[in-house]
Amino acid sequence: MSNDIKYDLAILGAGPGGYVAGIRAAQLGLSACIIEKDTPGGVCLNWGCIPSKTLIHHATEYAGLKDLETLGVRIDRTGFRYSDVHARSRAAAKTLAGGVVSLLRKNKIEVIKATGSLAGPGEILLQNGQSPAKKVMAKNIIVATGSRPMAVKGFAFDEQTVLSSSGILALTELPGSLVILGAGAIGCEFAYVMNAFGVKVTLVEMGAHILPAEDEEAANILAASMRNHGIEILVNARAKSWRKSEDGAIVAIETGGKAAEIRANRILAAFGRTPNTEGIGLETVGIKTDARGYIATGDYCQTSCKGIFAIGDVIDTPALAHVASKEAEIVVDYIAGHAAAHARIDLSLVPSAVYCEPQVAGFGLREEAATRDKIKFRKSVFPYRGAGKSIAIGKSEGMVKILSDPDSGELLGAQIVGYAATELIHELLLARSSELLAEDVGGMIHAHPTLSEAVMEAARGIFGKPIHI
User: Fold this and answer.
1) What is the DSSP string of 221-248?
2) How far apart are CA 308 and CA 290, in angstroms?
3) Within the chain, which residue ranges are assigned CATH 3.50.50.60?
4) Most-buried pick from 64, 169, 314, 447 (CB within 10 A)?
5) CATH number of 162-271
6) What is the set of active-site residues?
7) pLDDT tens-digit readout, 76-123
8) pLDDT at 2
């Protein structure tokens, strides 16, 4: 490759932001290349969303064996091998990563296997073990280098005793016990998986409730379910330090002003994620980051350097694959001259999803935030058990909560906790993005019996006309 090759767009990183940017560029007739040192698909496909959801699926199947036993079915679990579950998760990741490679090839996007760093406006320096180093020249550049598990002082990852989210996905054998530090989405999902497979789990959260970014009422339903299944949950608790023991670790925590210790074979440190913005040449082009490492951007994800954009986990928007993908489309449309009038993502329309059982999903205004900020709202809560389908399939645990403006009837937010919540949330999200009212959702005929009837009933509850409660 010569140093004078030019593209309309060069992309640093092939995760859900980077590869979508490449495909969108091809659709709009732009020449594009992607610089990626690892397997295309990023953390999401290779060490995050996909393999973890495979584990969750098999954990749910395994936990469901108890239901079969209530029907008189005798099940011998002695042949169970977690290594086979791990292999399934890796196979799923490999299949989807291969699919991304095929999509990039189909769209004639060149993938350059190398480490890239910004060398100047329109220039990316490649490091792939060859000498001399080469450059990629492009009219525009997108930084989509993603993030990594956040390391916290005193709990450095050794991936032996102290595991990151990637480290726990690499386990081929189950520990006898596990303490999870941080009860966000990652912590709760792994708590569910490990507990379902018989691991003794302790979940430690420094906030007042698990899933601190989610609706408290919904989080408390999940917490009650977890406790019923034997997961120990400690809230308002802070991990201070840890030391080795004969069979793993002893974690020192502080809760309620008192010191305590937790023994476990392994520690999962799930404190969040850190943007990958070091070592990519930002200082070379005059792009600064904030104290947390995020790049500041404008309405179309522009950085302070003309022609360079940043998307996904390297900017201060929700660290979610679907957000990165949408930002990719926004940037490429802007570069191609098809920019929308208002491109910045409306964060109130970004769905959150936690995939343990019961699932938790939501968008928009949370009740605690509305109360804190003195925002007027009308609330409707409908229990899952009010929908006949939930009783029929034995999944009656959960609720649908809707908040609306008391004057206009506009949907302000919604939270669902229960079976298939991550699928059901999109009906209400579509209504909100289409400026429909709760009356429109509640007045629409829903098939019976379905779980979506709980959504209908919650919507009817906003104007005081639920039927089955």
Assistant:
1) HHHHHHHHTT-EEE-SEEEEEEEEETTE
2) 17
3) 6-148+274-335, 162-271
4) 314
5) 3.50.50.60
6) 448
7) 999 999 999 999 999 999 999 999 999 999 999 999 999 999 999 999
8) 47
DSSP state of 175: -
**pLDDT tens digit sequence for 260-296:** 999 999 999 999 999 999 999 999 999 999 999 999 9
Q: What is 358-462's CATH number, 3.40.190.10, 3.30.390.30, 3.90.190.20, 3.40.50.300?
A: 3.30.390.30
**Separation between Cα atoms, residue 468 and residue 388, nearest integer Å:** 9
Tell me how far apart the alpha carbons of residues 172 and 85 are, in angstroms, rounded to a whole number.
8
Please indicate, yes or no, whether the overall pTM of this predicted structure exceeds 0.70: yes
Classify burial at 283, counting beta carbons within 10 Å of its beta carbon; exposed 0-12, middle 13-18, buried 19 or more: exposed
Tokens linked to 163: 């595991």
The one-letter amino acid code at 162 reads V
The tokens 């530090």 sit on which residue? 181
What is the rounded CA–CA span in Å between residue 88 and residue 358? Answer: 23
Residue 265 makes CB contacts below 8 A (sequence gap 6+) with: 175, 176, 177, 178, 247, 248, 249
**Fold of the 6-148+274-335 domain:** FAD/NAD(P)-binding domain (3.50.50)
